[in-house]
Amino acid sequence: MNIDELSSRAHIHDALLRYCRGLDRVDMDLVRSVFHEDAWVQFPASLHIGPVSGFIDFLTGEMPRFVRTMHSLGNSLIEFNGPDIAHVETYLQADHQGSEVHQWKGETVKLWARYLDRFERRDGTWLIARRQLLVDWMHKYPADGWFDDHPDASVGRRDGSDPSLRPVAGFDAVPVPDDNWPS
User: Fold this and answer.
1) What confidence score (pLDDT) does residue 132 get?
2) What pLDDT does residue 29 have?
3) C-alpha span between 158 and 67 (Å, rounded)
């Protein structure tokens, strides 16, 4: 393994993580940023099959109808087909709590699935060119029995105020002050 392959793996992994953050914070610009302009998305037919633009439209309507979501990635196998194409299988567990305007009416659905992605490096940037979601199984939990009455519990701050969204300067920049951390 050489430095280019290691760097490519890191860029691909970061794109996968940005996608999940975008979903959970309802930031469709962040979700869109991990796909090539001409990307194709194949989710179950009841959700979306087609160009990424239609997928973003679908998510823009769907994600705000959840009270909260949490997408957690597991195993991720990255296999290169030359220096500019990678086939990536990533395991996923995702929890979705439906709001009263969602078809799940307060129930929480856990999804165990896998993303099958074709990443392509174009103009030096790794992004998803094709994405397929394979749903392995799902479980619906009834609305009763869940609680978040702990004083530190949050609902995932989907309004842009989540602390994880504080700006950072990057590796080579002047650090941004950390005003929210104890001295």
Assistant:
1) 97
2) 96
3) 9
Q: Say whether pTM exceeds 0.90.
A: no
**How does DSSP classify residue 174?**
P
Phi, psi dihedral angles at 124 (to 5 degrees): 80, 5
Residue 128: what are its φ and ψ, rounded to 5°?
-75, 130
**Residue labelled with tokens 């619906």:** 140
At residue 7, what are phi and psi to the nearest 5 degrees? -65, -40
Provide the phi-psi class of 145: left if phi over 0, else alpha when psi is between -120 and 50, else beta.
Answer: left
| Gap between the Cα atoms of 14 and 162, Å rounded | 19
86: tokens are 């990678």
Q: What is the pLDDT of residues 85-137, one digit of tens each?
A: 999 999 999 999 887 887 778 888 899 999 999 999 999 999 999 999 999 99
Among residues 73, 74, 78, the alpha carbon closest in space to that of 12 is found at: 78
- How deeply is 3 buried, as exposed, middle or buried, from its count of CB atoms within 10 A (0-12, 13-18, 19+)? exposed
Compute the distance between CA of residue 167 and CA of residue 174 in angstroms, rounded to an integer: 12
178/26 Cα distance (integer angstroms): 24
Cα distance between residue 131 and residue 57, in whole Å: 16
